[in-house]
Amino acid sequence: MSRIISYNTADKADVLGFLGAAGSLTSDQQRVLGMMRERAQRSQLELDRQGIDWGLSIPDALDHLLAGHASSDAEYAAGAYYRALQHIIDCNASDPADLGVYSKPSTFFGLVDDELRRLGVSADLLLHDHLFFGPPEEIPFHIPYPVDGPHIGMFPLAKAKPAADAYRAVLDRMDESFRYDVRELIDKLEFEYNEWEYATKNIDWYTQDTIFFSITG
């Protein structure tokens, strides 16, 4: 089954600010929480329509995350927690954009990383591990990993331009089968970096620092 990779940008601290914060949310966070709950309910209705039961509803998973735990022992609860976390990210982030559709994204980006590594690109600029990194390490409780997805990844906005530059420097020497996808990736990383650089310098309230990736079936 093909997987869709999309991404948006956010301040990681804004996302973390909701986890375990039930009962102490600011008025602005309460407003954003209303959007999260609406999205969680729509996601659950879609799962119900498809006859999918994760053993934990997405609205309930959202409540767990807000309360500071992910303690359900339902077999597929990890999917509900990741979907709920994605709603927290999305409601604090820019509009999403598509990276692409891949039949086996882990395999593909693993091969791209191998090729870039062969050509001398620094390991900290390779993308595979960032795509599948999971939620922020700063979350003060464990969220189980959904083997079958959805998945969440992150990449620092400050590294987007260095990564794009490193990929472009070796593009002509890459295996031809990777060039189109890597060229597209370069363009998107550069665009996000330029937006981040401009906003950081010119918009007082702007604090975004992270590209968040979402991988869904």
Structural write-up:
- The structure is a single chain.
- The protein has helices spanning 12-16, 27-50, 58-67, 77-90, 105-118, 128-131, 160-170, 176-202; strands at residues 3-10, 97-102, 151-156, 210-216.
- With 217 residues, it is α+β, with helices and mostly antiparallel strands.
- Strands 2-1-4-3 form a four-stranded antiparallel sheet, with helices on both faces.
- The protein starts with a strand and ends with a strand.
- 33% of the residues are buried.
Describe this structure in a few short sentences:
This protein is α+β, with helices and mostly antiparallel strands and 217 residues long. The chain is built from eight helices and four strands, in the order E-H-H-H-H-E-H-H-E-H-H-E.
Features:
single chain; about 220 residues; alpha+beta; four-stranded antiparallel beta sheet; 8 helices
Number of strands: 4
Overall form: globular
Low-confidence stretches: none
Secondary-structure element string: EHHHHEHHEHHE
Structural class: alpha+beta
Average pLDDT, all residues = 96
**Gap from first CA to last CA:** 7 Å
What about the largest sheet? 4 strands, antiparallel
Question: Strand sequence of the main sheet, in spatial order?
Answer: 2-1-4-3
Number of helices: 8
- Rg from alpha-carbon coordinates: 18 Å
- Helix fraction, binned, reads 40-55%
Name the beta content range.
5-15%
Give the topology, please.
Blueprint: E1 3-10, H1 12-16, H2 27-50, H3 58-67, H4 77-90, E2 97-102, H5 105-118, H6 128-131, E3 151-156, H7 160-170, H8 176-202, E4 210-216
Antiparallel strand pairs: 1-2, 1-4, 3-4
Helix pairs in contact: 2-4, 3-4, 7-8
